[in-house]
Amino acid sequence: MLPKLEKILPASLQKTDSFKQALTHRSASAKHNERMEFLGDSVLGVIITEALYAHMPKASEGYLSRLRASLVNEDTLAQIAIEISLGDYLYLGSGELKSGGFRRKSILSDALEAIIASVFLQQGMDEAKTFVLTLFDERLQKLPTEDALKDPKSRLQERLQARDYSIPQYKLISTKGHAHRQLFTAECFIEGLNIRTQGISTSRRKAEQKAALSAFEQVKKEIK
Question: Distances from the Cα of 53 to the Cαs of 48, 67, 93, 141, 150, in angstroms?
Answer without folding.
Answer: 9, 10, 40, 14, 19
